[in-house]
């Protein structure tokens, strides 16, 4: 699996979350770092996009050598990076794409601006197999004031095939995640809400969904499997620093399913 993600020095999110998740899900990660960041378990200090020409060479080199079964997109903090990734997924329409729209860090740091979000919505979303926003990210991707379902329908109408909306930011007793399809009824899963917050939960979920698609699962099967893996990784999370807990994504520690 080709993973296009940022580097998190704390090891909780970004490319390391992708690598750990895919290893636990019996997939091999091809890690291409889109952005270098200074961050800890609490927030991001700053980012530096990797030059797009270097990314282009890395990606071309990988595709010439290794068969890619899925693509996972994480942090994009440069319009040049965004344009390159849009070109890559356009050139490989037969490969499933999972996109985690990383727009804001858990501590509040904004990765994106209005131009980047508009380009993401126009160039990335229509080519995505499964988009995995939380409620805040979904709101940012939609028209001002639009309700969540209306925004989801706009994204699906643009070409995105499935939207897995996570409910961790919603004010509900349990976490309710909903998978919206382009041409089928939505499906929902309910998970016990865990206390605290977790660094890299969205990266973990998106990578696990991509792993399922790479292994031939349907979007529904991949979403169900990924949620089970992520919930267990969060339940067994540990406190490395003073900020958010880190998910425990080690192989063999996140195999139980708890959703209904």
Number of domains: 1
Overall 3D form: globular
Written as H for each helix and E for each strand, in order along the chain, the element string is: EHEEHEHEHEHHEEEHH
Distance N terminus to C terminus? 29 Å
| Sheet/helix structural class | alpha/beta
The major pleated sheet works out as: 9 strands, mixed
CATH superfamily caption: Ribokinase
> What's the average pLDDT?
92
CATH-derived topology: UDP-N-acetylmuramoyl-L-alanine:D-glutamate ligase
CATH class placement: Alpha Beta
CATH architecture: 3-Layer(aba) Sandwich
* Rg over alpha carbons: 17 Å
Helix percentage = 25-40%
Number of strands: 9
Q: Count every helix, treating DSSP H or I runs of 4 or more residues as helices.
A: 8
How would you summarize the topology of this molecule?
Elements: E1 2-7, H1 14-24, E2 30-39, E3 44-49, H2 52-65, E4 71-73, H3 79-91, E5 97-99, H4 114-124, E6 130-131, H5 135-141, H6 148-157, E7 162-165, E8 175-181, E9 187-191, H7 201-214, H8 219-235
Parallel strand pairs: 1-2, 1-4, 4-5, 5-6, 6-7
Antiparallel strand pairs: 2-3, 7-8, 8-9
């Amino acid at each position: 699996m080709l993973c296009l993600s940022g580097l998190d020095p704390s090891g909780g999110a970004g490319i390391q979350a992708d690598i750990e998740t895919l290893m636990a899900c019996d997939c091999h990660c091809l890690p291409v770092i889109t952005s270098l960041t200074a961050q800890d378990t609490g927030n991001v200090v700053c980012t530096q996009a990797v030059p797009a020409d270097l990314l282009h060479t890395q990606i071309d080199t990988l595709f010439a050598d290794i068969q890619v079964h899925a693509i996972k997109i994480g942090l994009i903090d440069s319009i040049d990076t965004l344009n390159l990734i849009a070109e890559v997924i356009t050139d490989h329409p037969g490969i499933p794409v999972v996109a985690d729209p990383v727009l804001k860090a858990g501590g509040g740091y904004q990765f994106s601006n209005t131009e980047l979000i508009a380009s993401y919505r126009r160039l990335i979303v229509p080519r995505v197999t499964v988009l995995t926003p939380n409620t805040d990210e979904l709101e940012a991707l939609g028209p001002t004031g639009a309700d969540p379902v209306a925004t989801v329908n706009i994204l699906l109408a643009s070409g995105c095939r499935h939207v897995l909306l996570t409910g961790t930011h919603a004010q509900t007793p349990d976490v309710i995640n909903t998978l919206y399809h382009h041409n089928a009824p939505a499906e929902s899963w309910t998970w016990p809400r865990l206390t605290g917050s977790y660094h890299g939960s969205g990266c973990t979920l998106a990578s696990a969904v991509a792993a399922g698609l790479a292994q031939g699962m349907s979007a529904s099967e991949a979403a169900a499997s990924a949620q089970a893996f992520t919930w267990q990784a969060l339940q067994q999370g540990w406190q490395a620093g003073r900020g958010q807990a880190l998910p425990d994504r080690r192989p063999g520690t996140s195999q139980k399913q708890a959703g209904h």
